[in-house]
Amino acid sequence: MHELSITQSVVDAVSEHAAGARVASVRLRVGKLSGVVPDAMRFCFELVTEGTSLQGAELVIDEPPGTGHCRTCGSELALADLILLCPCGSADVAVVSGRELSVQSIEVAPVTSTEVV
Amino acid sequence: MCATCGCGNDEGTRVSTVHAHDHAHPHEHPHEHPHAHPHEHEHMHAGVPVGDTQTRTLELDILAKNDTLAATNREWLTAREIIALNLMSSPGSGKTTLLVRTLTDLGTQVPVAVIEGDQETLLDADRIHATGAPVVQVNTGAGCHLDADMMRKALESLDPADGSLLFVENVGNLVCPAMFDLGETAKVVVISVTEGDDKPLKYPQMFAGANLLVINKSDLLPYVDFDVSACTEHARRVNPGLDVVVVSATTGDGLTGWYEWLQHIQPQLAV
Questions:
Q1: d(CA B11, nearest CA chain A) in Å
Q2: Which residues contact A52 (CB under 8 A, 6 or more apart)?
Q3: Per-residue confidence at B4, pLDDT binned at 50, 70, 90?
Q4: A89 to chain B: which residues are within 8 Å by CB?
Q5: Cys staple from B259: which of A14, B39, B115, B271, with CB 3.0 to 4.6 Å?
Q6: For residue A23, which residues of chain B lie inside 8 Å, CB to CB?
Q7: What is the mean pLDDT of each run of 10 residues along chain A (117 residues)?
Q8: Under an 8 A CB cutoff, do B52 and A83 touch?
Q9: Where do runs of H (alpha helix) occur along chain A?
Q10: Of A101, A104, A82, A103, whose CA–CA distance to A91 is shortest?
């Protein structure tokens, strides 16, 4: 359940950047090959945000697919998982995308004098 | 961290040193919540009209904090010419037995030190301590892996000698430890023949990031349905350049291959 500490890292980083402003939504990129389960992050997000400036914020997760480059035949291929096998038979495949794990953007409310969290 | 509510990031983590005749009490559970949980939801709703919000583009790497700490650990280790190996596996693969045997066989050729990671108890650190090697135990409490901050705290406590060969035994878990760089020199995955030769396909993240695969408990091969060449082939499907050694930490069979790999990364060792 590494998603709990990873979600905690998201909340820590967003809290720092929001600098006290209320956060209405958080957009993440969690690649299909990242080793992180988006549903587990959604579950953890509610727990971890409680009592923070992110409480109640919407969590939007983009899940870019995995793609690879075969070093043997030079072709680009889709990767459903980390089993790196090109149709040409080569296992010498470099992962090009799908390992993304980042906070893309946040939506914040303007800070007002009566709403310092 | 607290597994119930996700509060208190590292408050369940403890770093313990082991001394002769000093079995620190293993039943402490310092999981008391350090703060009240505010439930005043009337002040906390993020019900902000969409038109009133501002979008801020961050493009932050989520693991950046861990990776930054890991880079600091790596610099710290490099400055002291310490080679650190992150040993990962399922629980019960024989990591500690392999370490005890290795520490005994290597003797005093180079300084050695060990960081032991487990959720609870000092049992593994006690086994390492019996070999005479300096050791600290990191108990992660509810945590399922070591991270770079725990590694930093353990390094501060252990203070390994310059030029050490440092073994870090991660929490037994084939999933989570793969995500967290500790600042190690190399990652070693241990699998035992009782686990099944399909594990590399079931847990590809772990095997994809490894530098060496140790297949342990080879003395049990006559009794189990485990195909060493199939396991090797499965592991290389996710990590084509992976080195593989087959050993029995109990009988000593095949350990020469493991020691030759250690010598490859620590040339001062004589095999």
A1: 13
A2: A11, A15, A117
A3: very low
A4: none
A5: B271
A6: 46
A7: 88 92 96 92 93 95 96 94 89 91 93 53
A8: no
A9: 3-18, 38-49
A10: A82
Amino acid identity at A103 = V
Under 8 Å between Cβ of A80 and A14: no
Picking from B52, B53, B179, the nearest residue to A2 by CB comes out as B179
Q: Which residue among A44, A48, A110 sits closest to B52, beta carbon to beta carbon?
A: A110
Those residues whose C-beta lies under 8 Å from the C-beta of residue B151, and which sit 6 or more positions away, are: B69, B70, B73, B115, B168, B182, B183
Q: What digits encode the pLDDT tens for the residues B215-224?
A: 999 999 999 9
DSSP string, B204-267: HHHHHT-SEEEEE-GGGGGGS---HHHHHHHHHHH-TT-EEEE--TTT-TTHHHHHHHHHHHST
Report the 10 Å Cβ neighbour count for B239.
21
Tell me the two tokens of residue B235.
């592991």
The pLDDT, as a whole number, for residue B12 is 66
B64-265, CATH topology level: Rossmann fold (3.40.50)
State pLDDT tens for residues B44-95.
446 666 567 899 999 999 998 899 999 999 999 999 999 999 999 999 999 9
Domains detected in chain A: 1-64+100-117 (3.30.2320.50), 67-96 (no CATH)
Tokens at B164, concatenated: 């050490």
Q: What sign does the dihedral A45-A48-A50-A51 (CA atoms) show?
A: negative
Contacts of A40 in chain B (CB under 8 A): none
ipTM of the complex: 0.80
- Residue B43, burial from CB neighbour count under 10 angstroms (0-12, 13-18, 19+): exposed
Q: Of the ranges B10-14, B27-31, B104-108, B211-215, which one carries the lowest mean pLDDT score?
A: B27-31
Phi-psi domain of B41 (left: phi exceeds 0; alpha: psi -120 through 50; beta: other): alpha
